[in-house]
Amino acid sequence: MTDKTTNWVTDYYAAWDSADVDQIVNWFADDIVLEDVPMAHVASGPEQAREFVEHAIALTPGTTYEVVNSVVTDDAFATEWIMRPAGLRGSSVGATRDGKIVNNRDYWNAGGRSQM
């Protein structure tokens, strides 16, 4: 993994850590599709994506993400993370285009909390 790929993943999750909705949605392409697989929720397009982000922040105030591992190519990514302070473990898998996230699927298990 190059510094460039590491930096965008780190910067993206730092945006989530800041709870700054504008900063987060700036990472999304105009045709963004976000999917929370365990909740069977899909948000398509900029308006639904913004609502998705706003709801996630309101639901889990003060949350930060510890990036455990990432694999990034020119047009795809997979990231393993731990949501703090809850210890919720999960992963995000998706595609990018021109430096923007085109789709992101989150997989997590609330029963698999980590104390790591």
What's the helical proportion of residues? 25-40%
H/E element string? HHEEHEEEE
CATH C-level category: Alpha Beta
Largest sheet: 6 strands, mixed
Under the CATH scheme, the architecture is Roll
CATH topology tier name: Nuclear Transport Factor 2, Chain: A
Radius of gyration: 13 Å
Q: Number of helical runs?
A: 3
- In spatial order, strands of the major sheet run 2-1-6-5-4-3
Overall 3D form: globular
Structural class: alpha+beta
**Mean pLDDT figure:** 92
Terminal Cα span: 23 Å
The number of domains: 1
Strand tally:
6
Protein name: SnoaL-like domain-containing protein
InterPro entries: NTF2-like_dom_sf, SnoaL-like
Pfam family, one: SnoaL_2
What does the model show?
It comes from Gordonia insulae. The structure is a single chain. The protein has 116 residues and is an alpha+beta fold. It has one domain (3-108): Nuclear Transport Factor 2, Chain: A, CATH 3.10.450. It is 31% helix and 44% strand. The chain contains 3 helices and 6 strands, in the order H-H-E-E-H-E-E-E-E. The chain has a 6-stranded mixed sheet with strand order 2-1-6-5-4-3. A hairpin with a 4-residue loop joins strand 1 and strand 2. The radius of gyration is 13 Å and the shape is globular. 18% of the residues are buried. The mean pLDDT is 92.
